[in-house]
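EI: anyone free to look at a 71-residue chain?
SC: sure, send it
EI:
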Amino acid sequence: ERIADLTPRERDVLRLVGRGATNAEIAGSLFVSEATVKSHIGHIFTKLDLRDRAAAIVFAFDHGLVAPQGL
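SC: here you go
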């Protein structure tokens, strides 16, 4: 599956994107720079053939990386 192509750090970033975190919030949470986050997001989009952040959020939910809150 395509998700297996992601590094553990890219999966962390995708989880946070799926929760609606901004690049700055992701950077702060993972103790990396925003440039590093942008790089990870670019790699995620390429590896998963995603066109934008909205598609990444849907992918994260569809593949169980993020669960709806309150359920």
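EI: The two ends are 27 Å apart (CA to CA).
SC: 👍
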